[in-house]
Amino acid sequence: MINLSRFDLVTLSLFVAVARHGSISAGARQARLAVGAASRRIADLEDAVRTPLLYRRASGVELTEAGRACLRHALRILQDVEQLAGRMSDYASGAVGQVRIAANTSSITQFLPEDLSAFMAGHPGIRIELEEQNSADIVAAVNENRADIGVFADRTPAQGLTTYRYREDELVLIAPRAHALASRRAVAFRDTLDCDYVSLPDATSLASRIREESSRLDRPIRLRIQVRSFDAICRMVSTGMGVGILPRLAAAPHAKSMHLKLVALEDDWARRSLLLGVRAPDALAAPARLLVSHLRAAATPA
């Protein structure tokens, strides 16, 4: 049985050069080998395949039938290796690959569609795997290497991650147009706490922020119903189930069709930051590094 471990790319490249030039010395020059070393490599290759590959004459060399078959396979192998090297170079440069992102609802509904679309237009070989999660779960996913990049709200504990400011959003009160607060241009959060509320589940960063602020005021929120999406909050509010708090850009598309009024909140905490988080920036694969740079460039100016 032929010992495949005795084949190497240098010898195959040399054999192709010798076959093309019809001369071991000419092939050795192209391969930048001494003639003696080249002769030994060709002889070792013949020993490995257990059959002569060249007819040796004073005027040069000529391929045997086995040599012609070896040449065809050697060319194919070298071509495959060249394509492999090119493909791996694409991965190394970040031209192709996959990036896993875990992001909260606010970033997905407001900012990521446009930012990711622009990135993918410039990097068509990179595939994005995007999963919507709560902010606390996002931090855990990045720390546990289930995501390369996290996008989550400030105030979320992010031990173990390097964070960068990404975008700013504004939280507003949403109310039916006939609601008593709908005529106000702005309202303090404390003045809304006599109203019934429609909210997201407790585990979300937005629900947590509202709960923290109501506790700070020692005014428990009158939670009437919890739903799982921004759209569902808008629908419930539009039917008179209560008021809600959502990012302005996420609520605005629903305001006209659902007859809602968006009222600014006067409280400082209603202006919040969305953060990018990664485990170790220097250890990121090239596609993830490119995407982090792109998202940071798209960040809301300070």
UniProtKB/TrEMBL annotation:
Coiled coil segments of this chain: none
Keywords: DNA-binding, Transcription, Transcription regulation
HTH lysR-type domain residues: 12-64
UniProt similarity note: Belongs to the LysR transcriptional regulatory family.
The protein's name in its UniProt record: LysR substrate-binding domain-containing protein
Source organism of this protein record: Pigmentiphaga daeguensis
